[in-house]
Amino acid sequence: MSDQRIDENNFEKISKTYQPKPNYVLNCFKAFVVGGLICVLGELLSEMYIHWFNFSDEEAGNPTVATLILLSSLATGFGVYDKLGQFAGAGSAVPVTGFANSVTSAALEYKSEGYVLGVATNLFKLAGSVIVFGVVSAYVLGMIRYIWSLIF
């Protein structure tokens, strides 16, 4: 038996030979189907709000998004969304539901610390940075557009 010294590069090369190769085609297909089904659910909710509650197309958007956020937060709380994410990968990260999942799961990690100091304070750990970035970028782009309209 040879006395080989395993350094970092050698270890990486050896360990890669034992790692399973991902099936990219299957993973893309699962992501496409699950992401598409989440979007179909959003469309069905939107049509429900339009036909059952007489909302216009523009008015149905906000309750549809709120319902998708509620459903994905509940699914995260019950542990269903994590299983969906493991199966679908990037397909479960459809913007609204994926963001609600990440905010809810970040808050649930600190449930043992209590509802106020645990859940409530950590609820905006991830959401806070996204909201601040959105507000600041909207302000900057609004100012650019305003200055642009004054010049031209």
Outline the low-pLDDT stretches: none
State mean pLDDT (0 to 100 scale). 86
Structural class: mainly alpha
| Element pattern in H and E | HHHHHH
Portion of residues within helices: over 70%
Protein described:
This protein has helices at residues 8-18, 24-52, 61-77, 80-88, 95-108, 115-151. The longest helix has 37 residues, at 115-151. It is built from six helices and no strands. The termini are far apart. The model has no long low-confidence stretch (mean pLDDT 86). By secondary structure, it is mainly α. The protein has a domain at 17-108. α2 packs across α3, α3 packs parallel to α5 (95-108) and α5 (95-108) runs antiparallel to α6 (115-151).
List the helices and strands and how they pair.
Elements: H1 8-18, H2 24-52, H3 61-77, H4 80-88, H5 95-108, H6 115-151
Helix pairs in contact: 2-3, 3-5, 5-6
Question: Any descriptors?
Answer:
6 helices, extended, 152 residues, mainly alpha, 77% helix
